[in-house]
Amino acid sequence: MMLLDGWKTFRLIRQALASSRWSLVDLRQVQEERIRMLLNHAYHNVPLYRRLYKEAGYHPEEFRSLDDIGEIPILQKNRLKQASPEEAVAQGIDPRQCGVVETSGSTGTPLRIFLGATDQQWQRVVAWRILFEHGFRWTDRTLEIRMTFGRQFFVQRLGIAPKDWCSILDPPEFWAQRMVKTRPDVIVAGAGTLHALAETVQTLGLKLPAPRLIVSDSETLSPATRQLVRGALGRDPVDVYGLVELSNFAWECERRSGFHVSADSHIVEVAADSGEPGPIITTALGMWTMPMIRYETGDLAEVETTLCPCGRTLPLLRRIYGRRVDSVALQDGRRIFWPFFHEVLGRYDELRQWRILQDEINEVHLQIVVPNSAHGLLSKIESDFQAVLPGEVHLRVERVEAIPFSPGEKTRMIISKVGTANEQHPDSVGQEH
Ligand SMILES: [Zn+2]
């Protein structure tokens, strides 16, 4: 049985990889078929969706093609959080018999996602597929640094895709020692964790063979972290986007020209006015126990309209901005997201790390990590930075020893308390592969 499961997993991964180069017509057809079945299932079997759709006067029969997807009511995260397991899980399935993943919800209620065996396999396949897009081999040894450890699968006990886990709560020196000991081919961790690991490897002066693949997920991978990881660990990290509730579904290819969306497994919409980042709305096409249809993730992204030169036909997101709270609010209502600040701050080689805090409108507090020897840099950054901000914004620049790294919480480049009262603190995510 377990071997049969393993075989099915291999087959599903192969299918998913093939779909990266399907024609757009074929991709669309598969998406339409899958979402239609899922809609019917959710409407007839899941009380939460039945109520949501009835309230909105929507019936799945109205769905003709993907052009109609905008008519399907959006599932807000809060609504899902408030639903009891019996409401959110398909009838006939006992939630107590399901696997559960939880967003940590550092404030407020955590979101609990119930997964049946097939959903779990689907989540593994969609996460693994991304590794295989980057040449993962079953013999590769993976080091994964996480808050919670995933389970060891039967095939892994046989030596297939062997995996070592480190805890995010261990000191970075411990992760580095583990790297020395196990010589992983693949490293998977959140961007903040990778940053701390790379810094430690550099400080200790460790010379290690470069892993073939480094995957950064869970948090925004800043260009500074990318550069540090590339320098210290010898490999350009692959930025992967996903959420605990949906698995990983958008990822950089070898061209690093945006994020490919795994369109065979997820439908991703970005509701945006032209030129603006818009909210990411995602449908997971393989979750049947607790369906996720047009789920508002709370993150923002910008769509890329051209195809990637790598030859994959999957749609692209140009940039993922994280949450709206992770931006600086201006008096006129606009918000500035991290890429803008990177453009300005990215030109200083001495600048190791930065973070922006905003407590009030027109106040920006920039924290920077620079070496002791960098004389005059502080005032140079201050004047260059002030020059690109609207005149009414008061800037304060502070040199700090380090930007605190809090295990289990997302590393955020911008923390603004302005105009975000109705938004929640981002839940930290970790993904089991
Ligand atoms: Zn590509």
Bound molecules: zinc ion
Q: Main sheet, how many strands, which sense, barrel?
A: 11 strands, mixed
Can you tell me the residue ranges where pLDDT is under 50 for at least 5 consecutive residues? 421-433
Annotated CATH architecture of the domain at 327-416: 2-Layer Sandwich
- How would you write the strand order of the largest sheet? 4-3-5-6-7-8-9-13-12-11-10
CATH superfamily of the domain at 327-416: ANL, C-terminal domain
Task: Compute the average pLDDT.
Answer: 89
| Tally of helical runs | 12
State the end-to-end distance: 21 Å
What's the count of strands? 19
Structural class assignment: alpha/beta
Q: Quick one: overall form?
A: globular
Question: Helix amount, in percent?
Answer: 25-40%
Q: So what's the CATH class of the domain at 327-416?
A: Alpha Beta
CATH topology of the domain at 327-416: GMP Synthetase, Chain A, domain 3
The percent range for strand residues is: 15-25%
Whole-angstrom Rg: 22 Å
